[in-house]
Amino acid sequence: MRSNRLTRTVRVLALCAAGLLAASGAALAQTSAPAASTAAVPDAPALYQQHCAACHAPQRTGAMGPALLPESLERVRPAEVLRVIGQGRTATQMPGFAGTLSAPEIQALAQWVRSPVQPAPTWGDDDIRASRVATPAPADEPAKPVWSADPMNLFLVVEGGDHHVSLLDGDKFEVITRFASRYALHGGPKFTPDGRYVFFGSRDGWITKYDLWRLRVVAEVRAGLNMRNVAVSGDGRWVMAANYLPRNAVLFDADLNLVRNYPATSLDGKQASRVSAVYDATPRRSFVVALKDVPELWEISYDPAAEPIHDGYVHDYRMGESIAKPGFQGVRRTPLEEPLDDFFFDQTYTYVLGATRPRQSAQAEGATAQVVNLNIRRKVADLPIAGMPHLGSGITFAWNGTTVLASPNLQGSAIDVVDMKSWKPVRTIATPGPGFFMRSHENTPFAWTDSMMSPAGKDTLTIIDKRTLEVVAKVREPGKTLAHIEFTKDGRYALASVWEMDGAVVVFDAQTFKEVKRLPMSKPVGKYNVWNKITRSEGTSH
Which terminus of the chain has a lower count of CB atoms within 10 Å, N or C? Predict the structure, then answer.
């Protein structure tokens, strides 16, 4: 019964959230509203408490509806917030207020929810612990799937249109189940090494643990108020969250019990930072954490035998020249010249390749990314890539006796290919426009990339031969946004998203590039194959 209540709560939350942040097709001006008073200035805080606080919480931190904080709304256009407050959205719990509030009142509310909350909301250890809900499995329940499919060739499809997730059989290309998610999942789901459990992170800070075999939520916790992503350790024992608000990283055990809170501050404690991202480095038995506002890269080991940590430089640590900190679950800092926004590992997990933006230093002009060696704990190279490389979605592959990195670019109409031995560019491959995702698979000679950031090229996927670094084909979805490729376990098929409310997952033959099947979906923003993720395929993000 508790699991059913939790599922219903998640479903209502998703409906509320979808109503607030989805753009309505009708303009606010097309709906009649009571005449506004020309004398009184609308009291936005009072209006919020009267009409919004019950669903979105008094401090706008979110409850039944999503958080309404500047950090949560930074990707939402002001006009969209304005329209949704006025119009609401059909088939959700979000009503329209154009018949209740005047146009100036709606305008005041739309502006106010994008302003900082005063006093600033907090979310501490007690809040985290109090938010946790768990539903243990029955003691006599068999530990096997309730469905018949290859558990290693499953896909999770995150549908942003109505905040649901579809579990897809990667052999038959049929939906096994579809379930409601928290509002605005972000950063990609992360799997335990056996593929049974998956962890989702939401923008509002919720971590959801879902049992793919038994098809139910087993635990949830709110790690923060605005979260970037979550990572799961290679042994499946630990989960870490990266937060913008509060400014911290938070460690949990696999059952989502709080283990440790890491305030994201500089070594001297004088500067706090948002946490850009956290990723698992399985071969190193550690989490790697990027700070958005402080020039440091953190490595937090979950190896009980991790070496002690010596902050700063030591002539000879064996002589006891500094006081060591425990290596297990301790913060090992790498000082940088510029903060990293997002990053990518090489296949050995020795190097981190991270985007630097915005550029704060005039030196090394043109270097928008940097290479950091995690073993020697320092930057070893700049990557002079024009525009804004999206290294978090880059891929690596063998080429001409070396290994190269290929990265999409959020501002440039090109794929940049870099030699990972010399760290020098080897090719720039033109695309129809700026893109967000690039994917491949070790069993295919082709890499696929989108141009979804381009108004003119968003409907095109560009296919590149990894052997020649030449464009060999393009597939299109005219007038739509076509993005985010993911491959089946064997690399035989490539799945793409028609990134629209009335969208679809399109299955392509990875050799002929011909469409094989199409499954209707509600804005499928991402697809994630269990096998490719847990084996750290060279063609997918880690």
Answer: N
> 341 and 372: one domain?
yes
Neighbours of 328 (CB within 10 A): 16
Q: What is the pLDDT of residues 396-411, one digit of tens each?
A: 999 999 999 999 999 8
Q: HSE on the CB side for 337, CA within 13 Å? A: 19
Last residue of a domain, one of 383, 414, 433: 383
Contact of 66 with 56, CB cutoff 8 Å: yes
Structure tokens at 241: 């969250």
In degrees and rounded to multiples of 5, residue 415 shows phi and psi of -105, 130
Of 272, 13, 252, 225, the C-alpha closest to 120 is 225
Containing structural domain, residue 430? 152-175+391-541
How far apart CA 128 and CA 137 sit, in angstroms, is: 22
Residue 189 lies in a domain: yes
Residue 408 lies in a domain: yes
CATH number of the domain enclosing 458: 2.140.10.20
Region 430-445 average pLDDT: 96
> In one letter, which amino acid is 444?
T
Q: Is 140 exposed, middle or buried (0-12, 13-18, 19+ CB in 10 A)?
A: exposed
Quote the number of domains for the chain. Answer: 3
Sign, CA dihedral 274-280-281-284, equals positive
Question: What is the DSSP annotation of 133-175?
Answer: EE-PPPTT--SS-SS-S-TTSEEEEEETTTTEEEEEETTTTEE
* 171 and 223 part of one domain: no
Lookup result for tokens 């350790």: 233
CA dist 450 to 20, 270, 529, 533, Å?
A: 28, 41, 19, 20
User: Which residue reads 């407050």 in tokens?
Assistant: 85
Please give the model's pTM, rounded to 2 decimal places: 0.86
- CA–CA separation, 539 and 231 (whole Å): 19
pLDDT digits (tens, 9 = 90+) for 228-264: 999 999 999 999 999 999 999 999 999 999 999 999 9
pLDDT at position 164, please?
A: 95
**HSE (side-chain half, CA atoms, 13 Å) at 193:** 8
Q: Is the pLDDT of residue 490 over 90?
A: yes
Residue 20 CA: distances (Å) to CA of 29, 300, 531? 18, 37, 35
Tokens read off for 45: 């805080």
